[in-house]
Amino acid sequence: MATQKQIELDGAQALIKTLDALGVEYVFGYSGGAALPIFDALETVESDIKFVLTRHEQGATHMADGYARATGKPAVVLVTSGPGAGNTITGIMTAQMDSVPMIIVTGQQVTWMLGKDAFQEADIFGITIPIVKHNYLVRETNALPRIAKEAFHIATTGRPGPVLIDVPKNISQSPFTADFEDELAAELDLPGYKPEKAMDVDSVSVEEAARLINLAKKPLILAGHGAMISGAESELMEIANKMECPVTMTLLGKGVFPESHPLSLGMLGMHGTAYANKAICECDLIFNIGSRFDDRIIGQADKFGHQAKIIHVDIDVAEMGKMIVPDVQVVGDAKAVLQKLLPMVEKADHADWLEHLNGYKKKFPLGYKKQGGLRMQQVLDEIHDLTDGNAIISTDVGQHQMWAAQFYTNDASFKWLSSGGAGTMGFGFPAAIGAQFACPDETVISVSGDGGFQMTLCELATAVIHKLPIKILVLNNHYLGMVRQWQELFFDNRESGVDLEGNPDFVKLAEAYGAKGINIKRPADVRKKLQEALDYNDGPVVINAECIKTDNVFPMIPAGAALEDMLIEPPKYKMDKPIGST
Amino acid sequence: MSQTITTTDKKPAPRPDVVGGHTLSMFVNNEPGVLMRICQIFARRAYNIDSLVVSQGRDPQFSRLTLGISGDPAGLSQIILQCDKLIDVIHCYEHTPDDSVTREMALVKVSVDSGEKRTEVLQIVEHFGGKTVDMSEGSMIVRIEGASDKVDAAIRLLTNYDIVETVRTGKVVMARGEQST
Quick check: A129 and B82 CB within 8 A? Predict the structure, then answer.
């Protein structure tokens, strides 16, 4: 049909038509010379794709990331060549570290100029190889629909991740001469990529896992992002109840099991709850469902769970034995594994073990002092209260992130968007924009420090233009607080490169962009001011909370230390410099 | 020309944390950039690629790689899994000497200034089943092929003469028996 019309397509139009057919809802991007034909195709091709112009390419990547974390669906980033492509690096790396699906389309110089240092030429294919799941440099116009389809398939299946497509300008500009419908319908041919194997779980390893589970007297479930990505929430609930087993979650797994559930121990790790970390030390079985045993969880690897048998369920076989050598490894999709495992697991009674852990919960609760000035914990605690813990929270990295993880407990998946693996400052606010586009009816709160917010605050313009009612919480201590905490604890309190003297007036800054600004200075005002922010829905609101400058996050496991060496409160002795991972 | 770089056949000093002699075989998509993806995995984990052979497969859509590598043995299984994870890698196996045959070929250019030396070199080459592939007034190029240690031994004997240069192909490997590589 309409053969005449197909002949008139150019490569860029074929690409946009393919993205539309693949169900892309949003393209976040920034234009430029090498991407001109693709930007033009956004105008000339009739599609359901909505384009959002950002103020920086990094913002575009984090928006696509926030969109994907809030929905499980990928968004597209569209930028030009050279610096445009280069500015996406941090965002791509962030997505790759946290297994977030994303498609990045970069414009590129014409093919005959590649390798000749042409204007705005950068080898973005080569540059991004270590930070993508896969990437393409397109050398044939007619291949664009196939490559876009492959990219989506790769980004969204198995262990998700970012896929970059570099499109030289002559490729996007040339006529598309194949039959578009045929190309779109063509079967994918990826002999080196078999994600469907993850659904076919090896019975022997599942039986062995069931045997260890049924023998355990003090089991512990460690639920990670993989459990969330696979949609295993109900299976996880069922197996936790059947095993009568406490559940701890990783930073990215927050919410996959309700944190308000009696079996929940909250987040574990460097700044996790004392009771989760004590459970790791004392349990006789660690049943890891979809966590990659990140170094911020395990501390000193050879002491991690040394009394416990370890079962590792992961969709990525390359995670097996990378950090911790498990007693049983089960390679597969978490949901598929749990479905297969559930009938083999016997109903158990672990009342004594739970009672023991409840003792820790009572003895070492997460808390904060209400005196001595405004604390970030109080702001987070109160906004949790005011939103019933139902808001979508996105964060940067640092003290505010760890306190948000501790005090903004989640009861559902896809509501906690935080840069875990990469630890990217400047992630939270643009990610909140992506999440608000994805979920227009939800309350979206961006939690940043004064440092991180200033890295991507130019996206205030993006949020204002689209009247996104994001609550931008700037927990302002005029410091890079987490680094300052380490300098206080391990470097004789010598402050170096952490004092953010010269911060702007964030309320005036918000107003300059046409957003609303609110200051919070006194603990007594927190609730009222937060309510005012939550009630304002005509656009973004920046809430600048002037917090205590030198507060520290506890509990804390110094990097590389064993979990049993956790500090529950500030140490009374001088500590050695940590020798473990950063 | 600047100073000549001598291409000796000296082995680097042994390091306890590095174990050489591992041979990997990979079957990969025959596309630009695939080798780059693989090399980054080795480089990031401080592995050295001691030898590398790439050639087109029977089906030109694919290539076959044989890599001789050295590095911390504790990380090797991780590396194999990471290589296997690449979309462009169809499969990646490690081969042990017991389950595979390994061959390589070396060309050695020897400077021979007398008939006596020429005869001696020819005797060595004959002993190792090699061939002379080029001969001139003052030099000859000989070809030695076989298992790596055989090639090593031949070169070691030829070192008694004036070797101008050596070029080795690197190892190619194939699983023994009916198993496909």
Answer: no
